[in-house]
Specification:
This protein is α/β, with parallel strands linked by helices. Helices cover 37% and strands 21% of the residues.
């Protein structure tokens, strides 16, 4: 198992926590210097908060841990392609790269429905690598739909 698969497995564990809470099973981890600095999973249903996406929650935790809104040299691993809100948060938090498990056919903003991270010129660019453990991530999301 390579490093990308190891971190995506950690994101999948977070997704399983979401599933157990009857949430959309999306999990996310943020890595800096080869170590996980934050973990999160969807919590929209539990918290009754539309912003309770795994990516947003993981970014908030990483910012708190690093005591900065700039997550320079950080990478995100997320089981499902980020939506426009989460893609915007990736740009604004200055995350350097996002690793995506599988596409989001409904709201994917990293190439499926639109590509906020590559098709537009912002003050910060986020690199994208898709399909890390795609089969597992896809199977995971299909459990609920």
């Amino acid at each position: 198992m390579n490093e990308n698969e190891k971190f995506m497995k950690s994101a999948l564990k977070e997704a399983e926590k979401a599933f157990e809470k009857e949430e959309i099973p999306v999990g996310c981890v943020i890595v800096k210097d080869g170590k996980i600095i934050s973990r999160a999973h969807n919590s929209k249903e539990t918290t009754k908060n539309a912003c309770g996406h795994a990516e947003i929650l993981a970014i908030q935790k990483a910012c708190k841990k690093l005591n900065s809104w700039r997550l320079l040299d950080c990478e995100m691993y997320v089981t499902l392609e980020p939506c426009p809100m989460c893609a915007g948060a990736l740009i604004n938090s200055r995350i350097s790269k996002v690793y995506i498990g599988t596409d989001d056919e409904k709201t994917g903003a990293c190439g499926t429905k639109l590509n906020l991270l590559e098709d537009y010129k912002f003050n910060h660019n986020v690199q994208v690598q898709k399909y890390i453990l795609q089969e597992e991530c896809s199977r995971n999301i299909k459990k609920i739909f």
